[in-house]
């Protein structure tokens, strides 16, 4: 599972991390841990505080496919990571919002692969209209699309 970041936000976070001598994940993890330490009144308050840190560092993406940069949930503090996993295991996409509307989303890696596959299929369909740019990879994507339409539920990223 990942939290997609907009390109400008990710660059700022990387700059802050570099200035502090930490990796991006270490920097974010430390920022969230510090937020958790500021409010120890209840577990819910601590999680809410950590979510606020994420909300102020995340940016809403119209399409999570437009940016390859993600921060793994596994790098979050355990209690918050467990909360996110529990919600995600229900099969829903998590969208963080504030008064202005959605500002960040959290999706499972499986859903991300599905979205990437859908994007590849759409690009393939687009190139198919111009046969001069149709490639062998496009044929493989077409086979995947045919499998999906036939109702086969297989992971195209698995081997064998």
Question: Topology, please?
Answer:
Blueprint lengths: L1 E3 L2 H13 L4 H15 L4 H15 L12 E3 L5 H12 L4 E5 L2 E6 L2 H20 L7 H14 L11
Could you give a short account of the major beta sheet?
Answer: 2 strands, antiparallel
> What is the element string, with H for helices and E for strands?
EHHHEHEEHH
* Total count of strands: 4
Mean pLDDT: 59
Strand content: 5-15%
Number of domains: 2
What radius of gyration results from the CA coordinates?
19 Å
Strand order of the largest sheet: 1-2
Question: Judging from the principal axes of the Cα atoms, what is the shape?
Answer: elongated
Main traits of this protein?
mainly alpha, two-stranded antiparallel ribbon, 160 residues, elongated
Structure description:
There is one protein chain. 56% of the residues lie in helices and 11% in strands. A two-stranded antiparallel ribbon has the order 1-2. The protein has a two-stranded antiparallel ribbon with strand order 3-4. The chain has two domains: 106 residues, no CATH class; 39 residues, no CATH class. It has six helices and four strands; from the N terminus they run βαααβαββαα. It is mainly α. About 11% of the residues have low confidence.
């Amino acid at each position: 599972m990942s939290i997609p970041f907009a390109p400008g936000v990710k660059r700022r976070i990387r700059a802050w991390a570099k200035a502090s001598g930490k990796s991006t994940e270490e920097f974010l993890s430390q920022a969230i841990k510090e937020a958790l330490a500021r409010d120890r009144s209840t577990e819910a308050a601590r999680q809410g505080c950590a979510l606020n840190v994420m909300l102020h560092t995340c940016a809403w993406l119209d399409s999570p496919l437009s940016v390859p940069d993600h921060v793994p949930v596994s790098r979050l503090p355990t209690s918050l990571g467990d909360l996110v996993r529990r919600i995600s295991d229900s099969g829903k996409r998590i969208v963080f919002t504030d008064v202005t509307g959605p500002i960040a989303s959290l999706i499972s890696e499986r859903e991300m692969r599905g979205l990437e596959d859908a994007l590849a299929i759409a690009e393939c369909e687009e190139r198919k209209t111009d046969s001069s740019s149709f490639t062998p990879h496009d044929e493989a994507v077409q086979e995947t699309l045919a499998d999906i339409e036939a109702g086969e539920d297989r992971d195209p990223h698995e081997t064998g």
